[in-house]
From TrEMBL:
Gene3D superfamilies: 3.40.50.11350. Coiled coil: none annotated. GO terms for molecular function: galactoside 2-alpha-L-fucosyltransferase activity. Keywords: Cell wall biogenesis/degradation, Glycoprotein, Glycosyltransferase, Transferase. It comes from Hanusia phi. One of its GO terms (cellular component) is membrane. Pfam families: XG_FTase (PF03254). This is Fucosyltransferase.
Length: 217
């Protein structure tokens, strides 16, 4: 389902213009893996905080599993399905293969900050929004851009711990929910909420619109 009116998509189209060699890579992948298929883009972000180790310490296994459940729910009743995975965590590719089988496709490049790795990330980002549905990790700008660019209302697996929660027991049970808009959320709201001068009423209002899943990543 694509929104007819949107703000983010036309602005991004003006600012972000991949080079022709990258666009050719995107088109080749689409032709090889997406043609004639029902496609769902699936983003699983694992490296949640700077300084965390590279074993996906930013999320739990249950949180990751919810992404796969959400993707299957998004495509319920469809046949000839392809799941396109974009992740910042190499072992998650293997986990997804075990869960989704031969219906899973992804780029085979390395996940790093080299020039090649960054180019792969742009290809990932564009392909993520090329399906009929998209599932993203709450709070990830990568996910926001993928669905905002294509005017798609995403399925979202929210952060397990809202930014405004300071207690050690603030972790929430993983869940899957459908967003009410294709527009990426405004990152600075949770920054404001976290300040001492704000009280609960405003936070509850932001929670109602899913704004607590924004993060400046």
């Amino acid at each position: 389902e694509r929104a007819r009116k949107a703000i983010f998509a036309p602005l991004l189209a003006y600012i972000a213009r991949p080079r022709q060699r990258i666009l050719r890579r995107i088109e080749r992948f689409r032709e090889e893996h997406f043609k004639g298929k029902h496609v769902v883009g699936l983003q699983v972000r694992r490296q949640m905080r700077k300084g965390r180790d590279k074993e996906g310490a930013g999320t739990t296994d249950e949180h990751v599993e919810m992404h796969f459940k959400c993707a299957r729910e998004a495509m319920r009743g469809a046949e000839n399905i392809v799941y396109f995975l974009a992740t910042d965590h190499e072992p998650t590719r293997r986990t997804a293969r075990n869960k989704l089988g031969d219906n899973l496709v992804h780029l085979n490049g390395t996940i790093d900050s080299t020039r090649g790795g960054m180019e792969d990330a742009v290809v990932d980002l564009w392909l993520l929004g090329e399906g009929e549905q998209v599932v993203v990790t709450g709070g990830s700008t990568f996910g926001f851009v993928s669905h905002g660019r294509r005017r798609m209302k995403p399925w979202l697996v929210p952060l397990e711990k809202p930014l405004s929660s300071s207690s050690s027991d603030g972790w929430e049970k993983p869940r899957c929910e459908r967003e009410i808009t294709c527009e990426p959320c405004f990152h600075m709201w949770p920054m404001m909420i976290a300040q001492r001068c704000f009280s609960g009423g405003f936070e509850e209002a932001m929670k109602e619109f899913g704004q607590l899943n924004c993060r400046p990543w």
